[in-house]
Each structure stands twice: as C-alpha cells, then as structure tokens.
Amino acid sequence: MMHPAPMIGRLWIAGEWQDIGSGEWLSRSPSDPETIIGRFPIATPEQIDRAIATARDAFPSWRRQSRILRAECFDRLARLIERDTDSLAQLMAMEIGKPLSECRAEVIEGLHMVQYVFGTGREPIGQIVASEIPEKDAFVRRVPKGVVAVITPWNFPFAVPLWMLGPSLLEGNTVLFKPSESSPAVGQRLVELFLEAGFPGEVLQLLHGADAVGERLVQSPVVQVVLFTGSAAVGRTIMQQSAGMSDRIVAAEMGGKNAVIIAADAQLEMAVNAAILSAFKTAGQRCVSASRLIVAESLLARFTERFVATADRLRIGNPLNPQTFYGPLIHAAARDNVLRYNALAESEGAEILRRGGPIQPSDAPHGYFLSPQIYRLDSPKARCLQEEVFGPHVGIVSFRELPEAIDLANGTDYGLSLAVITESYRTMRLIREECRFGMGYVNLPCIGAEVHLPFGGVKRSGNGHPSAAGLVDTVTHRIAWTVNHGESIRMAQGLTAEV
Ligand code: UN1
Fold first, then answer.
1. Whose CA is nearest to atom 9 of ligand 1?
2. Could you give the residue numbers annotated as active site?
C-alpha cells in the first residue's frame, strides 16, 4: 500500500499546534528513502522554553486532579489505540521499516501499558505505618515529582514512549516529549491520540528535533526527571549535565551487548530458534537484541551449522510484505556502522561463517538492507564482542564448563538482557545467581518483555527500571506524614520533649 500524503509535522506547545520551528527536516522511509513520511519542524530554543514554562505552570492543577479521573483518560486512550491499531502499525512500518506484524505487536504493547496504567489508577498511593509513639499515626504517600522530560528512541516509537508517558501522567506529572528524529510521525500520532482522549492540552508538550532539543530540555532546572532510552553516549551526557542538579533524577536505559548462552544439554531446535530471534528480529535493532552467542563446545558444530543455514533462509525485505522476517536498517549511517563492525570482526581475527552485507530485496530495492553477519571468535575482549552494534551482526564464542560461560556473559560493560537455553534446573539457577543482567530468559529469546515486568539493566545499560513497571518510583517521591493525636508532644527515640 502506498503511503498517503506526507504528514504535516507540528509541535504541540502551550495547548496549540505550531508548524514552524527553526527549520525542518524530512522523515523518509528506510525501505525506500524516496518515500517521504512527513516534514517536521525543529523546535526553536524559544519554543522549547515556552514548552518548559507551560509544563511547569500546568503541574499544580494536574497534580490536584483526581488520580482516578487522570486514569480514566487512559481508558479512553486505550480505546483510541484499539480503533487505530492498523493505521498506527502501517505508519510505523513505513516510518521505521519494522515488519508490519512486529509493528502491530508494538502497538499492542503500547496498549497493554495504557491498560496497565488505567488499572493502577484505583490502587493505593501510600501506606499507613507504625510509629514508636502509640498516639502517633504515620503515613507514606506518593506524590508526583513535577516536570518530566521523555526522550525516546526510534526503534520502539510507540510502546517505549507509552512506558514513560503512562506512569508519569497518571501520577500527576506534566511531560515534555521529544520523540526520536527518526520516528517523528509516530511520536506525533501518539500525542494526537492523547489529546483526543481528553488529556488537558498543557500537560503534554511535543518537541521535534535532534540532540540540541534534548540538550536544552536536560539543561533546564525546571525538569525534575529525565527518562531516556537510547545510546550509552547520550545517556552518559545527560547524566553529566544533570550532575549539579540535586533533586534531578535521570533514569536511563542504554542498550546492551546481550548474550544467549546455549548449554550442552540445550534442545538444538529451541537453541537455534531462540538465537535467530534474539539476534535478527528487528534486524538486531533492539536494545535487547543479542550480538553474542555463548555456545557449549560439545554442541558447537551442530548448532553453528543449523544456525547459519536458518539465517540463510531468513526473508529480508519490504516491511509491508507479510513474509518479511526483518526489514531495513533505520538509515544509511546505521547501515554503514554495522558494515564497519562486520569488517572490524574480520580484522580482529574472526572466522566469518556467514558474510553480511548490503542487499537489494526485489520488493524494496532501494532500502538500507543488510544480510546477517555471523562469525566465530574466541577473543572475548575483541571490540566486536564488547561494543553494541545494533544490527544483524552476531559472534559465536564457545565454552567448556559453565563458569566460563558465566564469565563470558558478564565480561562486557553492559548488563541488560540474557537468555539461557538449557534443560537443567542447576544451570538455570547458576546463571540467574551469577550473571549480571536486568532481564533473564530461560528457553526463550532475550527479547520480548511484557509491560508489567520491570525493564532495565545494570552497568552501562543504565540505572533502575526506567521503563514499564518500576517507573512509579522514579516519577514520584514518597512523603512521610506523621500526626500526633496525643494531648502533648512525645518524640521518637526517647528524645526529650521538655521545653
Ligand atoms: C528495545 O529493545 O529497544 O523486550 C525495547 C522487548 C520489547 C521492548 C524492546 N518488549 O523486546
């Protein structure tokens, strides 16, 4: 299906749409760069400052609104997402090149987050706790932080923003949302749905643009919380820029060098399928994608043969074609970056088992497509086995005893997602206890998290659980509230109250 007329990109600031910024850029389809998805204005510094001031000023009334009424906006949003699932998936497939079925799954993931948020609307927002003094009542109550900046990546342009916008707005914060410059159309559609669902126009601002827009948001002391998903380099910059702001919280999720461990007792077919899904789904462009397979030596030959043969058969092509397993890389720079890592692996001594490179599928000859690169390399410190690649590029490393596999899995600066394929309870338990990761999977690929589970990593992969369940503690703080019902003052710790 052809894409309809290009979208008119607009900023949503201070309760109105603005279609002029400091310039504009075109969002193009990565499967056919001639196809223009839309034209988007770049927010000017003045527009950004106005958005920040609006978010600050809108906070008190949004915070005072009944939490249940805020939650009900999410109920309406859920129905709008259900109504528009197909068109959202279509737009996403066109704009970022993910196969349509994956885009549908992502819209559903976003819907699940919205349903989850609606469902938590009537849950308790605090606790009654005991006091040392019988006449004292003590309470803990969660209150919103204030203004939250949400800076999100292109690869999950619908679900990941919803992971962050959902709890932030439910709890009573106001939000400045900057979608990736590679997925502005999906970001804008999402904001349109929020407005249609009845969220007050000032509680959410949409700012298009690249790093400079994000930087201005991060530099503002009005912004109390920065929720970021993206590269380790940008995440670190945000943390550095936030260092002097004592009540600023940064929750960042910053990719991984994820691994699938294939134990000696693994079922071969399950191991091959899990490895293919982990490494090549979304063309390896998930932060949870695997780029390392840690394989028991006794299975190595049989596994490798079947893995390479299966990778050979993967259908790469037009994301709108239902047969497509994976689509293009997001842009030429991303494709070239993967090609550099492919070459690097070879120069670092890898044995190339399947050479990846640019291809021109017949159903989309002009996109940024790459075939899978698979190699074997037993130098775990090689850069290609240490750095995030974000593409269809995977290295196989072998091990003899399980402790070696654990050392290999732990032997990078990242710690996001990990899978183990095994039939053994002991193996599974040892991996869980000894490996450092945020999300672990047994007899599954290391992708495909569900929204009600915490999502996030350790080490260079980030701090806390910036996404999905777990975010509540980031976008609220807990106040302690203590009330004395006695006739006179009595203090804790036996402190004298004589004056
Ligand atoms: C990402 O990898 O960038 O767990 C997000 C998954 C998805 C989210 C991925 N639910 O694969």
1. 286
2. 253
